[in-house]
Amino acid sequence: MTQLRGSSGRPGVRQTVAVTEVIVDVAGWTGMALLIGAYALVTAGRLAGPSLRFQLMNLFGGALLMVNSAYYGAWPSAALNLVWVVIGTVGLVRAGVKGRAAALPEVGPQG
Fold it and tell me: Any idea where the CBU-0592-like domain is (predicted)?
């Protein structure tokens, strides 16, 4: 356990915060930043929706927020982010399949 000075309203009072809780909080804020950043970049036209970067930002952002939500027992939010992760995974798989298909040489009729 790590001792951090808290803002309990009483000067000099210490509150104990578990290192795990700090890590989960950082994960939640990072996930939020990734999701909002991805949405802002697509909205601004600086990033394409089907791009690898967009899909990865959504996948990792959703996963980090899912961990944070589950840790704090916010199950509706955790479920939403689980769906977000599944959608991001499907997007990555589809992009990978399309990328492999595009990389294959075209074979024309033999004549």
Answer: 24-95
Asked if 98 and 69 touch (Cβ cutoff 8 Å), the reply is no
On the CB side of 24, CA atoms within 13 Å amount to 13
Can you give the pTM of this predicted structure? 0.74
Query: Sign (positive/negative) of CA torsion 49, 51, 53, 55?
Result: positive
* Length in residues, the chain: 111
Taking only the tens place, the pLDDT of each residue in 51-110 is 889 999 999 999 999 999 999 999 999 999 999 999 989 988 887 777 766 665 555 555
Task: Give the helix/strand (H/E) hosting 103.
Answer: helix 75-103
42: buried, middle or exposed (CB in 10 Å: 19+, 13-18, 0-12)? middle
Cβ atoms < 10 Å from Cβ of 81: 23
107 CB-side CA count, 13 A? 3
3-state secondary structure of 8: coil
Give strand pairing partners of 17.
2
